User: Fold these one by one.
Assistant:
Number 1:
Amino acid sequence: MCGIFGFKGKGNIREIIKNGLKALEYRGYDSCGFFLNNDKFSFYDKKVGKGKIDELVLSIPLKIDEEVIVISHTRWATHGRISEENAHPHFDCKKEIAIVHNGTIENYQFLKKGLEKIGHKFISQTDTEVIPHLIEENFKKDKNIFFAVISALKKIEGSFAFLITKRGEDILIGAKKNLPLVIGFDGHNYYFSSDPIPITKYTNKVIFLQDDEIFYLGSKIKFYNFKKNIQIIKKFDELDMKEYEITKGSFDSYMIKEIYEQPEAIKRTLKYFLDETFERLLKQSIPERIVITGCGTSWHSGLIGEYMIEKLIVIPVEVEYASELRYKSPVVDRNTILIAISQSGETADTIGAMKKLKGKCRIFSICNVEKSSVVRESDFILLTKAGPEIGVASTKSFTSQILILYLFSLTYLFKKGRISKEKFNSKCNEILKLVEKMDFLLKNNNVEKIAEKLIYKTNALYLGRGINFPIALEGALKLKEISYIHAEGYPAAEMKHGPIALIDENMPVIFICVKDKLLKKIIINMEEVKTRKGFIISICDFISEEIKKLSDEIILIPHIENEYLKPFLTVIPLQLLAYYVANKKGIDVDKPRNLAKSVTVE
Ligand code: F6R
């Protein structure tokens, strides 16, 4: 939530800031702003609303010959409405100290009251604004901006990654706690960003700042641990640039491109697991119990993991929302594994839950971002290789996560001696067959036509059973988040305990109805909906007379025998359905209202 981007050096400043902010827009797009500083001139600008970066950077002159410092921001509003005064950068009373901040300052009200009492005037409703005022106050005593920032850090509670500069001075300071801050250096210019993506355009040399670290960039860059009050030495790492290549290609949105990338993402994730993870995982002892945690889509993949792990390796599994787990008193020990699932690796609640259980049980993570906070908090890492996911709605990372959960189950099944290595290999070959079927489905489906039927609806119900119940949840989440149609996912049989009251001819009901042992049961649930005149869309891997009779629309998907692989196919039409409905309603699927890709606040 919120992206920060900074630059120190010479170049086409307008382009650098525009590219930097655009690459971080997935973290928030309520407003944007920058502060440009050097010893001759300093100015700032802010714009409110989505898609304003092009307009914002017009105030940066096309040609600047001098070296400049720029700090910039793209906002996802937490404290204070979406408005110009709440857009970043924020300043002290004299408008000398400028800050861009990602995170939340939990004790800001207390600090603000104290500062107001001694005469500080606040312009915004944000938590961020206390930081420059605190620094201003400390500066009166410390007479040194760096010490003033350190003193401020000792007073603030919460999570932050920020960049600060002082009007007319060659100073750039940044610090982080719980939220990411990456520094790039191309030999001449420095780049600062919430993630490495915008930096990789210029250099592959980066430093990931760690928690409680601060840097000071004057004529040279220096690093300190502000908690321990010590200077530290940090070296630039070389990033694998291929991991960060981001374009929409021939697609008109990241979301649709990412949906179509799923077969490749599955192949990459499988290969990486077999090459890099399998042997290491075999060395990990089999736990007595597993707790899976995550948020949103990642929580849904946890539910599928529960189904796979309990049935295949017969270990009890609980799946907890990370936001709940972090404030519970979970009973765990060294025979428990916590599996934290996160695409971004920066979700505040997931990190909070991991921290809560740290030291009490083994912590595994399934994550798509190698250098993320979730990865750093883990004892064992299971990487997904979905590639950067930019569209707000999670798609290819979901199928990559459930692949890892399946491979995790197969590996422990092999370790337990319940399947041979040949059987393990043949199961992996089945995944390659699955990939072909996913590819076929993406190229041959009638989802776009069926989406027409949903655009004027206000509600939808998604029903599935067994391993396809979490797919129903996921389908409903996709529809609501990008098309703004209220949708709920339910276990199909649970419908008659309440939601059935909602069913009439205006209620679309999407059934996941595949050839498995619950087929007969789901057909009964379809009858119950049809009797009440519900409009049935069936996602089926075969068609029978009965299904034809009950369904108003059918989306046929390829059949796969292995029940654990069916969700990879049933989820695709639901992702596409949400995409086409939103697209036909004219919604920007990559940046739907109120959302941000990386939820770094509680
Ligand atoms: C839904 C979606 C969110 C995320 C959730 C967790 O499409 O993208 O529900 O799944 O915010 O994010 P990660 O997986 O990055 O921890």
Number 2:
Amino acid sequence: MENLEKIFEETYNTKPTLKYISPARINLIGEHIDYNGGMVLPAAISRYITALVSKRDDDLLCFKSTAFEKVEKRHLSDLKFNPKYDWANYGFGIFYMLIKEGYRIEKGLNILITSNIPLGSGLSSSASFLNLIGFIANDVYEFGFDMKTIASRSVEVENKYCGLKCGIMDEAAIALGEKDKCLLLNCDNFTYKLVNLNLGKYKFVVLQTNKPRKLTESKYNERVDECQKSLKLLKEVYKDIHNLCDLRSDKLDEIKEILNDDILFKRVRHCITENERVYAFKDALEKGNITKIATLLDLSHKSLKEDYEVTGLHLDTIVEAAKASKAIASRMTGAGFGGCAIALVDEDKFDKFKEKTAKLYFEKTNIIPDIYMVDIVSGPKKIEE
Ligand code: ADP
Ligand code: MG
């Protein structure tokens, strides 16, 4: 921390006066159904972006990240999107949107961020960053927003300002997170409920494949298209459905005939069964049925691998390695094709688990993974020292 304060002073020639943190997120279950009207069940985890801040007397807004060299500075009156500001666009975008909404901000800030959330690995460093800046602006200028408003603005900035397609899940999971609870979230209408995570001696572990997510975007769009095509065909028969997740698995035989296409059928089967697994997972959590929880996580991975086909060698290998190393369950999390998986592991057996999983994964891929236990935590916070 002392070091970070030193970087702040070297960068801005003044001392920081405020400190904030914002967590990362994992999705426990409900994968690739956020855009099919399904339910998701994410949770905020104990990996953070930290920000040191000081107020300025002029109208400059300044960002520096320990992950990048340059300090990015702009006038509050001139915050239009410009690709040359790269990563700092997330920060400028929040202020741009606030000013566009009519909020008066006359004096700027010096902001320095540092992070132990891997960038671009599916733990939502982007959503964490956006929410953090929204939270800081809300605190400094005393706008009085609730966390839901902060999350919605973050999504708007990611979609409209940065031009990156994303749903509400990531920003909501981070903004609305609470300690030892997960968020049962309807991504369609942004209604949600917090559910207690009662896992006894088991902890969630993040398995970072350290494989760049190259294919993610094109394959993601391909799946979205396949789902839309299927929905169109199914709507001709089931007139009152709005989304694939309005359907139930007792209709699968009929659906197979209607679609008359193996690939489309597999995609739809994943969506329908995954949505049902989310509800079953919530029930199992409420009953403290850890065996059922583990089974559902494993089945989710199997479905993402075989029916939705978004896992790939690295995710499958790390999930198999985790299972061979005594995880009671493991599945990919996020968009797939690299990024991260999660596992449920007995806390006392973590060290051995980590060693064996890393070894098995390395043998097959030649990549050293990062493996760490995480706590389930609350959303962005001001740190008073
Ligand atoms: P994910 O959200 O899964 O981590 P994204 O590609 O959506 O992946 O977001 C990663 C981007 O977010 C980075 O390329 C960078 O622009 C921004 N970002 C995240 N963390 C930081 C950080 N610590 N410093 C600067 N920019 C960051
Ligand atoms: Mg992101």
Number 3:
Amino acid sequence: MAEQETKKLIFSGIQPTGTFTLGNYIGAIRNWGPLQDEYRCVYCVVDMHAITVRQDPVKLRQNSLQAYALLLACGIDLEKSILFIQSHVRTHAELSWILSCNTQFGELSRMTQFKDKSQKHPDDVNAGLFTYPVLMAADILAYNADLVPVGVDQKQHLELTRDIAQRFNQRYGEFFTLPEPYIPPVGAKIMSLQEPTKKMSKSDTNPNACILILDDKDTIIRKCKRAVTDSEAEVRYAEGKDGINNLMTIYSSVTGKDFAAIEREFEGKGYGDFKLAVGEAVADHLRPMQETYAKLIADKAYLKECYTASDAKALAYSSRIVRKVYRKVGFVDAN
Ligand code: AMP
Ligand code: TRP
């Protein structure tokens, strides 16, 4: 990455906790590919964050490899970017300790994700769940990232990262870059197919609410056909037509057609035709990615080659930064 150091550095992480949804894809992952030409991109499968809630070890390993292969299939190009596995790069845990000594108990107690997750899992309010945002700060600061693409739910953690970085800089001298949130220019919010005022989420208990990016064509079409709409029969983007608006957003995202063109295309046609068209367009759009994914996940040796190379680059880059942090806090040089 050294020769391109004038380009800004983007860091983002995604948890390997199950197959990504169409929402993750349209709102986040699909936008990661095009960033690679403009920025130096460092992407990470954050398996260490995943274990802050109880995970089945066999499943976690599978999910981590699946997430890795899916990100490659969605367009992350290892000639341009780094895509590594968090637990393989020790600097994240190392820096996390130092940053935790520069983070206040009160700050972490105010994090809404901590409050939500402790309510959801009252039998396992572990220390890792509490210090989760410190590890996230370490992910970002170990690369001195300029920009971090995150959804709104992670904005509070990013603000805390800035506060921690600023405090460190005050105590030990200017060192860390204060990272900014990066909101992609495109990247619509996709809503649940069953309750279109709620975000589409893989934790939804109704399987029809959410399209997974590995769903087959029949499943995708079935879910679209069952999507909740309204009692009119007009494909038109308008207030109060949340279900249709959401389907139009999805259709537009995968075909590139604008709302006016979609309205013309379905003039005089019913919702049945429209839903079928949306299902088919989504399935057709996802198919090449699914085919690439199938090849990648069947080739574990290739995947290993990919992450081993990226792990090494991530370690080399972040070690330089963490070594300087060790000096700044007053640790004796190791060699
Ligand atoms: P999550 O699965 O909630 O951890 O989110 C991972 C990334 O996907 C974040 O950048 C979110 O903003 C994005 N994302 C998740 N769900 C949606 C959705 N329904 N619409 C748009 N973006 C989403
Ligand atoms: N906490 C993020 C989420 O749940 C994942 C994450 C971990 C992350 N480390 C990060 C995101 C660093 C951006 C930068 O979505």
